[in-house]
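[recover] target loaded
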């Protein structure tokens, strides 16, 4: 199954889309990676869903990625005596350590780490930023605040802390258990919520030990302050625009998105743009014009993947949402301005043989109008380097490692095929040409570029570029 676009689509599974038939429909409509949100999925559901995805993968003969998204800390106020209160701007309101029911003057905050970390002047955002408080006094197990923006506050609404660095790590006890279960289910990616500091990534990497890719969700202002350090440590990252838009001024988010996509390109890390991309399609079979523009901008900027959340998980039109995203992406990639915009965002290759070969391969493929670029890889790093160059020619990634093939489903422009390691240079050329022909990328008489590491099968040692002709029988000669 060959995709006619380069950007990948991540679809979240949920009540509207968890059965095998629907997963197959979503995959046929364009989904490359399936996200399982552990905020809502039990371990039983996790294993069932992964099994269904693998069945669909077998049916389609096309690799599908599985992304397990950890919940992260859930910071909430506790309950009110009347179920809710009305807060007015300018009034005093206390968040304290007493677990008695809340009133219009106070409420229990069951998070001592917040009470210990907030400083005078810090903002506290409640209910996704609908209400805003500012700390005026801290101590004796309580935070006294002044209401900046009031409104209705009801039981167990979330608390966000844009100005406060919490001492707790991103991995809660629940996340740790869910992470181990995700690894047991052989998930391809683990997404870590609530990342504030590089140490959060290091903690998860120690547990994962290379068994899955680690994806950092960038959703906290504290993560923005140490963005480069975090990106260098993770395998991929997600621009979680919903939470960023709560804790940061909304008008700064588009610029941050652009900055993060360019940083991903510079460091050679896949980036997923997420949240509210086709939000109206939760209840409507067609998106708004603004949503189409939003998706288009992410594609024009060169994001590796774009993601659907509730649209595919609980919406009324999950298949239509994926199909719409697919059509928008294809329209952007065929636009007359697309190549020049992508080209303008190119970054200089790193001073390594592998990066130099990847950069040269793109130039050779475009100059000689080759049919495709075929890259052999064990770990996937060569494929990421090839994709980082954003070539106008298709990239075919060949690997004997099924987990590498699945993990690369999130990477821009890469068509993945599992194949045995080549036994010799001649076998390598033949195998590349035959697969390029069989997968519909090259015809007899076409030429392809082949990159690999010599000696064959050496991870991370790309040092060879070869041009080969596809013969009438599909095999190759160079």
């Amino acid at each position: 199954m060959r995709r006619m676009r380069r950007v990948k689509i991540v679809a979240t599974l949920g009540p509207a889309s968890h059965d095998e038939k629907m997963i197959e429909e979503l995959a046929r409509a364009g989904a490359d990676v399936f996200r399982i949100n552990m905020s809502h999925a039990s371990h039983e559901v996790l294993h069932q869903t992964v099994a269904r995805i693998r069945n669909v993968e077998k049916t389609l003969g096309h690799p599908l990625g599985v992304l397990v998204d950890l919940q992260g800390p859930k910071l909430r106020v506790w309950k009110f005596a009347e179920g809710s209160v009305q807060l007015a701007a300018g009034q005093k309101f206390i968040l304290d350590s007493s677990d008695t029911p809340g009133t219009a003057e106070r409420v229990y905050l069951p998070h001592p780490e917040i009470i210990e970390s907030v400083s005078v002047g810090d903002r506290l955002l409640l209910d996704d930023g609908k209400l805003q408080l500012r700390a005026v006094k801290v101590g004796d197990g309580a935070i006294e605040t002044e209401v900046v923006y009031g409104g209705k506050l009801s039981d167990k609404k979330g608390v966000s802390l844009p100005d406060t660095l919490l001492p707790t790590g991103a991995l809660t006890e629940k996340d740790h258990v869910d992470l181990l279960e995700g690894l047991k289910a052989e998930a391809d990616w683990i997404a870590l919520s609530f990342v504030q500091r590089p140490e959060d990534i290091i903690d998860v990497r120690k547990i994962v030990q290379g068994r899955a890719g680690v994806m950092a969700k960038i959703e906290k202002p504290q993560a923005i302050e140490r963005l480069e350090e975090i990106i260098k440590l993770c395998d991929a990252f997600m621009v979680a625009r919903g939470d960023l838009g709560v804790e940061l001024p909304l008008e700064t988010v588009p610029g941050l998105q652009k900055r993060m996509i360019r940083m991903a390109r510079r460091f050679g890390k896949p980036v997923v743009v997420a949240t509210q991309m086709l939000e109206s399609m939760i209840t409507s079979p067609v998106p708004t014009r603004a949503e189409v523009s939003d998706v288009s901008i992410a594609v024009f900027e060169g994001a590796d993947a774009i993601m659907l959340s509730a649209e595919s998980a609980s919406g009324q039109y999950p298949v239509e949402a994926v199909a719409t995203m697919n059509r928008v992406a294809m329209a952007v990639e065929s636009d007359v301005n697309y190549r020049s915009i992508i080209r303008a965002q190119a970054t200089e290759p790193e001073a390594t043989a592998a990066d130099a070969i990847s950069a040269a391969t793109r130039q050779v493929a475009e100059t000689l109008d080759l049919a495709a670029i075929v890259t052999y890889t064990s770990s996937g790093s060569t494929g990421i380097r090839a994709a980082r160059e954003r070539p106008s020619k298709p990239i075919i990634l060949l690997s004997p490692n099924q987990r590498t093939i699945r993990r690369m489903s999130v990477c821009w422009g890469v068509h993945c095929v599992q194949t045995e390691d080549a036994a010799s240079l001649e076998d390598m050329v033949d195998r590349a040409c035959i697969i390029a022909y069989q997968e519909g990328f090259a015809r007899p008489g076409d030429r392809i570029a082949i990159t690999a590491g010599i000696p064959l099968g050496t991870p991370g040692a790309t040092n060879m570029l070869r041009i080969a002709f596809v013969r009438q029988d599909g095999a190759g000669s160079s």
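[recover] notes: The radius of gyration is 24 Å.
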